[in-house]
Each structure stands twice: as structure tokens, then as C-alpha cells.
Design brief:
The complex is a heterodimer. Chain A is an all-alpha fold. Chain A is built from six helices and no strands. By secondary structure, chain B is α+β, with helices and mostly antiparallel strands. Helices cover about 40% and strands about 20% of the residues of chain B. Chain B is built from 20 helices and 22 strands. Chain B is globular, with a radius of gyration of 32 Å. Classes of the chains: A mainly alpha, B alpha+beta.
Chain lengths: ~190, ~625
């Protein structure tokens, strides 16, 4: 069977087109899977942040019972919590990360203040809340690590050649990294 | 009853028993539950147990130990630091102050001890944790896995796959095939027996039936992995959710072992559920290569290339043997020289042919190709024999002393015992790093000394360079892994080891205290020494009998510990001392005795077993490694 050059050219182009289509579908699926992973990772952060928000009022109440006159510090914590909760409604990761950073810093000041109140430090309720909060902070740190890794993987795929051509079709938008608060970036200090 | 019917009944009964066994295996299979939603929340189970669950309760695989290694790093018992882009180039830095926290589990402690024992100045390369003895590697893994299974059972996450009730059922059910098989055998014996021997076949059933029931019982009780429990399935579902979560992060699969310092326990759990591919690929806790071995001699770690010479037959030979060989060559050479003069000319001296005389002298030797060839061969043999004798003498009187770290000990040459008889090792390779270069060539160590040192030991050896024979070996300092590795070369089955780990019956480290006498010397080793297949029979925990396959005793072993052992030792301590074996060892005409600590082992050769007398030092060396 003799094929004309035109037919051969059409077959070659068709084969290439099918291969490109398969690659595009595969890359599209990879991007969608990675985007979903970013969202799932963010959901994990969200769960832990909400848990932290829930712990703060109890903590403030407990501290108030022993150090009620430290009004300024307590109010700063309450305000930072309100700010963090308000930022929770915002889709901006940077905004939320900044608000949570403020809450972390104000909590840090609150725990520094507790040093001056031995009765408070010995309170079972306070110790329990402190342990819960520390546990939640740990989980936030790991969740942030997973989230940032997922964002990095997605960014790498979305900005690499040639998958960068499929990223706009899949509706991939750059996701922001969830930054550690200033206090967490500073050298670690251990206070007991 | 006809023999054919008896055989048919026996086959059917055996098939029925096999069917029952198969059904039990089928119904006790464990499948993985549906995974829980993907989550990053880790549960309380240690990674090695998670590995067992992820493996469908079969048994922990090599990732269990590797996951535990990463997990202990995540818990800051040590640090893993990567020195270059290649994750294999990582080192473990042991934390001198263990972190506060709950006590380590037995298998975690086992791994940490291994790392600490291997570390020099608190540092050990990641790839230097491999074993240098296949038996120890296998035994270590068996014990580690048994402790993991025991912990899983303690947590209620796992149970015996074939329960004790099922084993009892199978053993009871085996009476039918055992009886029918024994009956068929008895019928056959009766048919072929002489008239005066009739009736003996049926009598043999009394002996055959218990043996067959024991065989069926052995198969019933064999370890077949674990079986799930409701709590285990719940935990497995949760861990499968964690696996899905970790697998969803593409980057996680590419994390090196050193990433554990950032990911803490997640990397260990990732290894346990088989998603941390790069991390586990860089780890190896099994058998190492004998050609590229880590050495810490001189205080710093480096890899030494080891060459194992094989070609020349002089390697490892004693001076006497070499001289004897040289004398034989000389005798052969002189004999051939004498004979060569009488050899006929290959080409008859016809007219115009070669002259056989010159100036009145007979030069036929040089003109005849046959005589010339014989003369050359004779000269070669004489020169070769002289060279061998002189070199052997020079080698004998110019020994060299080397001090260094033992890198590897393995069998080099064996002596054949004829057809159907196992060969006996008489020479071992001994690779020693003297710290001068990163390459070394192994020496020939007489096999009876092979148990005197282990890899990692600091030794001083006296060697002959030409024959590469070790003439003396002295352990200056035992290596860290020496004591650690004792007792690892277990052949015990997993169920017994799990029972030990659970504290049922024999206990883990104390196992050696209650080991039966025959556990310190295998039937295979006695077979090698005797030169015939051997079977072993325990006579209580203290005595054991080694017999030929037709039931003739060749050796008896006795083992005792504690105060009674002192009395034994007083009676057994006689003969020629065997230095370097255990704390003390003595060799007599037909036996040997060895003591290490409070343990005493006496080996007595019987009748045909006395042929093994020259190999008694080697046999006692094998015993010494297991005491």
C-alpha cells in the first residue's frame, strides 16, 4: 500500500496531536491533584488555628483570675484573637498569616507575664491549657510545613516548562506561603 | 485389606488434612480495611508496628527497622547529618544525653544499642550499620521483628494467625492421616517381610504414628504471620489515612534521611507505610558488602576496599606442606631427568638426520625433541621445587606483625570429604585494616581460629607474607558490636521468639540461659566434621545426641550453667588447653570442653564420630560463638 506524502504528514501530525493531548490531560490532572493537596493542607492549618482560637478565651479567663490587673496584656490577646478570627474569613494567606503572627506574639507576652505569678503557674487549669496550646502550636507548625511543601510542589509544576502552558487552563493561581510569625523565626528560647 | 486401598485411604486422609489446613489459612487471612480520610494526625503506635499493620499483618519488613531508625532520630536520640548531595553520605551523631520521655520499647532499644555500639566518638556513617555476618543479620532481624509482633499483640492490634485451638484441631485431625499412612507402610513391610519376621510391620506402627503426628504438628504450628483484630483494623484504617496524606505530598517521597530533623516523626511513619522512598533507599540495616567495608581504625571512619586472593595454591598453606610439595617436585624432577636419558628418539637417526654425538660426546638429549622436552620439564620441576622450599623457609623465618581492625571473616577454602559428604572449612579469609591505606588484601586464617575474633575487634596478627597465612592472632580490644551480636544467630522460629518477647516461657535476653545443648552446635557443623549427614536429638535441655541417619551416635553434647557447671568443669578440665576459645577450653583424645562465664559445654565423640577429632578445635570455636 502506497501512501501519499500528504497522508503520511496527516498521520504524523495526528499521532503528535494525540500524544500532546494525552500529556496535557495528564499534566492537567497532576496540577488539579496538587492544587487539591494545597487546599487539604490549608484545611489542616485552619482546623488547628480554630482550635487555638477556642483555647484563648479560657486561657484569658484563667489568667484574669490570678492577674486581673494586667489588663493591657489580656486585652491585647483578646484583640489579637479577634483580629485572627476576622482574618480567617479572608482568602489571603498572607493576611491570615500576619494576623496569626500577632496572636502568637501576644500569647508569648502573656506567658512571659505568668512568670511573675507562681500561684498561676501552679494552677492545674492553667497547666492543662498551656499544654493544650503547646500541642496545638506543634500541630500548626507541622501543618504549615505540609502546606508550604504542597504550595512549593504546585508552584514548581505550574511554573515549569512545558506544564506552565496547562496551568492557566487548569485555573491554577499562585498560592501564598504561610509564614512563621516573627517570634517563631527568632532563635528558640526555652523558658520553664 | 489390599495395599492399594490402604494407600488410597492414606492419600485421601492426608489430602483432607491439607484441605482443612488450607481452609484455616484462607479464613485467617487479613485484608486491609478501607482507609480513613487522609489526615496528618499521628496515632500512638510506633512506626514498626504501623509497618506490620500496613503489611496486612503478614510480618514486618525491612522498612520496619529503617522506620524505627528515623523515628528515634525524630525523637532526638541522635541526629542525622547529610555531608553531600547524596543522601547515602549521611552520618549519625549519637546524643550523649538521651531525651526525656517514656522508656524505649525493646525493639527500639535493640536498634539504639546497635547504633551506639557501632559509633566511634559518637559518630557512625549511615551505611556502616550493616552486618558482616549473614547469620547475625538474619538473627537480628528475626528478633527485632518478633519484638515488634509481640508489642502489636500487647496493644491488642494483632494476634496469632493460627490460634492454639486451631493448632490443636489440626494436630488432632492429623491422627487420621498418620494412622492411615502408618497402616499402609505396615502393610507394605508385612508383604515384603520373610515368614519368620511377620507381624513386625504392624509393630512399627507404634513408632511411626507418633513421628507422623509430630510432623503434621510441626506444619500446623509453623509461624504463618499475624492476624488482624478489631482494634488493629481500626488503627490500620487510621494509618492508611496518614499514608494517603503523606503520599499526597509528592515532595515527601524525595526526602532524604537527614530531613528527619525538620519533619520529626513524620519521616519515620512515612517509611513505615512505604511512602518515604528516598529515605528508606539510603538506609540499609541488612548485610553489608565484603568488598567495601567501613573501618574506624585510627579514630575516623573510612571505607576500605578489600581484595580476597584466590589464585595460588600456596595461600594459607603451612610451611611443612609447602616444603613437602617442594620435595615432591624435586624428586619428580630428578626422576624425570634420569628417565629422560633412556627415552627413545622421537625421530630415528637416519641418513641426513640429526647427529646424536658431537666431539665424541653423546648429545642425543639435545637433538631428540622427546629427550629435550623431558629434560626441560625435569629442570622446571627441580627449579620449582627448590624455589618453593627456599621461599617457604624464608617466609617461615620472616613473619610480620600487623595491628589493625578486623573488617571481615569468611570461609575461604574447604576440604572435600568425598561424594555425598559435606566439605569442611580449613581456611578463612581475614581482612584486617592496619590504617596505612584504603585498600587491603585478606589473609588466610586457619579455620579453627576463625571464632577468636569478630569484625570490629582490634587485633595483632603474625603473618607470613608469601603464603598470606596467619600464624598467630591476639585480640587486643573487642569491638563494640562483639557482645551485641552474640546470640543473634538464632534459627529459632518466630513464634518462639514472639513468646520470649512477650515474656511467655523463654525470655528474650535470658534465652541463652535456657538454650538447649544442641542449640550451640548444629547438626550441619557436626556433619561437616564427621563427613557424613547427621541428625540431632535433644535429650532434655542439658544433653543432645548427634546421630547418623541410621541412628548410630557419633557425638554427645552436654551443657550446664550455674553452680552445677562448676562441678562439671572440675571434672572436664583436662587435656590440652585450647587458647582463645571462650574463657577456657580443653581438648582430649575424643572430646573437648569449653567454659564461658558460668556456662560449660562438653562434647564427646563416639565410635565413627572419632574421625572428627582433628576438627574438635573448629567445632568448639562454633560453640564459643554461641555461648
Amino acid at each position: 500500500m502506497n501512501l501519499s506524502p500528504l497522508v503520511i504528514a496527516i498521520i504524523v501530525v495526528a499521532v503528535i496531536a494525540v500524544l500532546v493531548l494525552f500529556w496535557a490531560v495528564h499534566t492537567f490532572n497532576v496540577l488539579i491533584r496538587q492544587r487539591n493537596q494545597v487546599r487539604a493542607s490549608w484545611a489542616q492549618i485552619d482546623v488547628q488555628l480554630k482550635r487555638r482560637h477556642d483555647l484563648v478565651p479560657n486561657l484569658v479567663e484563667t489568667v484574669k483570675g490570678y492577674a486581673g490587673h494586667e489588663r493591657a496584656t489580656l486585652e491585647a490577646v483578646v484583640a489579637a484573637r479577634a483580629g485572627a478570627m476576622a482574618a480567617g474569613a479572608s482568602p489571603s494567606v498572607e493576611q491570615r498569616s500576619a494576623a496569626e503572627g500577632l496572636l502568637t506574639q501576644s500569647l508569648g507576652r502573656l506567658f512571659a507575664l505568668v512568670e511573675a505569678y507562681p500561684d498561676l503557674k501552679a494552677s492545674q487549669n492553667f497547666l492543662h491549657l498551656q499544654s493544650e496550646l503547646a500541642n496545638t502550636e506543634d500541630k500548626i507548625a507541622y501543618a504549615r510545613q505540609f502546606y508550604n511543601t504542597a504550595v512549593q510542589t504546585l508552584d514548581n509544576t505550574a511554573h515549569s516548562f512545558p506544564s506552565m502552558f496547562v496551568a492557566p487552563i487548569a485555573g491554577i493561581k499562585p498560592a501564598g506561603y504561610f509564614q512563621a510569625s516573627g517570634a517563631e523565626q527568632a532563635p528558640v528560647q526555652v523558658r520553664f | 485389606m489390599s495395599l492399594t486401598i490402604a494407600i488410597a485411604v492414606a492419600v485421601l486422609a492426608t489430602a483432607a488434612w491439607a484441605g482443612l489446613y488450607g481452609l484455616i489459612l484462607l479464613f485467617t487471612r487479613s485484608s486491609l480495611p478501607s482507609p480513613a480520610p487522609a489526615t496528618m494526625d499521628l496515632g500512638p503506635e510506633p512506626p514498626a508496628v504501623v509497618n506490620l499493620l500496613a503489611n496486612r499483618w503478614g510480618r514486618p519488613d525491612e522498612d520496619a527497622a529503617e522506620a524505627t531508625l528515623l523515628d528515634l532520630a525524630g525523637r532526638r536520640y541522635y541526629e542525622i547529618r547529610q555531608a553531600s548531595d547524596d543522601p547515602v553520605h549521611s552520618t549519625i551523631h549519637v546524643n550523649p544525653q538521651p531525651p526525656a520521655g517514656p522508656d524505649l520499647l525493646p525493639f527500639e532499644q535493640r536498634l539504639l544499642s546497635r547504633i551506639r555500639a557501632a559509633a566511634v566518638g559518637g559518630v557512625v556513617p549511615l551505611t556502616a550499620l550493616t552486618f558482616r555476618d549473614a547469620g547475625q543479620a538474619k538473627g537480628w532481624a528475626r528478633r527485632f521483628n518478633a519484638e515488634v509482633v509481640a508489642h502489636a499483640r500487647r496493644l491488642g492490634l494483632s494476634r496469632r494467625r493460627i490460634s492454639k485451638a486451631q493448632v490443636t484441631l489440626l494436630t488432632t485431625a492429623s491422627i487420621a492421616p498418620a494412622l492411615s499412612l502408618a497402616f499402609a507402610l505396615a502393610l507394605q513391610i508385612e508383604r515384603s517381610a520373610a515368614p519368620e519376621d511377620k507381624g513386625g510391620g504392624y509393630g512399627s506402627m507404634f513408632a511411626v504414628v507418633p513421628i507422623l503426628i509430630s510432623v503434621f504438628g510441626y506444619f500446623s504450628g509453623r509461624y504463618r504471620g499475624e492476624r488482624s483484630t478489631p482494634a488493629g483494623r481500626e488503627a490500620a484504617a487510621r494509618w492508611l489515612g496518614v499514608r494517603d496524606w503523606l503520599a499526597g505530598h509528592d515532595a515527601f517521597a524525595d526526602l532524604p534521611p537527614a530531613a528527619v530533623m525538620v519533619w520529626d516523626r513524620y519521616l519515620g511513619y512515612g517509611a513505615a507505610v512505604h511512602v518515604a522512598h528516598a529515605a528508606t533507599a539510603a538506609l540499609d540495616l541488612g548485610m553489608g558488602s565484603k568488598y567495601l567495608v567501613w573501618s574506624s581504625y585510627g579514630g575516623s571512619w573510612r571505607r576500605v576496599k578489600v581484595r580476597y586472593p584466590r589464585f595460588f595454591d600456596r595461600y594459607g598453606q603451612a610451611t611443612g606442606t609447602l616444603v613437602k610439595g617442594g620435595v615432591w617436585r624435586l624428586a619428580l624432577g630428578f626422576g624425570l631427568a634420569l628417565v629422560s636419558r633412556t627415552l627413545p628418539d622421537a625421530v630415528p637417526d637416519k641418513v641426513g638426520a640429526l647427529n646424536s654425538s658431537w666431539a665424541g660426546e653423546d648429545i642425543s638429549t639435545f637433538t631428540s625433541p622427546t629427550r629435550l622436552g623431558a629434560a626441560l620439564l625435569a629442570t622446571l620441576l627441580i627449579v620449582w621445587g627448590l624455589y618453593r622450599i627456599i621461599r617457604a623457609a624464608v617466609d617461615h623465618y620472616t613473619p610480620v606483625e600487623i595491628t589493625g581492625e578486623v573488617l571481615w571473616v569468611s570461609v575461604w577454602k574447604t576440604a572435600s570429604q568425598g561424594e555425598d559428604r559435606p566439605s569442611i572449612p580449613w581456611l578463612h579469609h581475614l581482612a584486617v585494616d592496619d590504617g596505612t591505606t584504603d585498600r587491603t588484601v585478606a589473609w588466610g586464617l586457619p579455620s579453627e581460629w576463625s571464632s577468636r575474633s569478630s569484625p570490629g575487634d582490634l587485633v595483632r596478627i603474625s603473618v607470613r607474607r608469601w603464603t598470606r597465612r596467619v600464624t598467630e592472632i591476639k585480640v587486643l580490644r573487642e569491638g563494640g558490636g562483639h557482645a551485641l551480636h552474640r546470640g543473634f544467630d538464632t534459627e529459632d522460629n518466630t513464634e518462639n521468639l514472639v513468646a520470649e518477647a512477650l515474656g511467655e516461657g523463654r525470655k528474650a535476653p535470658v534465652a541463652l540461659r535456657t538454650q538447649v545443648a544442641t542449640a550451640v552446635l548444629t547438626a550441619d557443623e557436626v556433619a561437616r566434621a564427621v563427613g557424613a549427614p547427621i541428625q540431632v536429638r535433644d535429650i532434655g535441655p542439658i544433653n543432645g545426641l548427634y546421630e547418623t541417619l541410621d541412628g548410630k551416635p557419633v557425638a554427645m553434647i552436654q551443657m550446664q550453667r550455674g553452680p552445677m557447671a562448676k562441678l562439671w568443669w572440675a571434672a572436664a578440665k583436662r587435656g590440652t588447653p585450647l587458647p582463645g576459645l571462650g574463657d577456657e577450653a580443653y581438648l582430649s583424645e575424643s572430646g573437648a570442653a569449653i567454659r564461658r562465664g558460668d556456662a560449660v559445654v562438653i562434647l564427646v565423640l563416639h565410635r565413627s564420630g572419632r574421625a572428627a577429632a582433628p576438627h574438635l578445635p573448629w567445632l568448639m570455636g562454633q560453640v564459643a560463638t554461641r555461648l
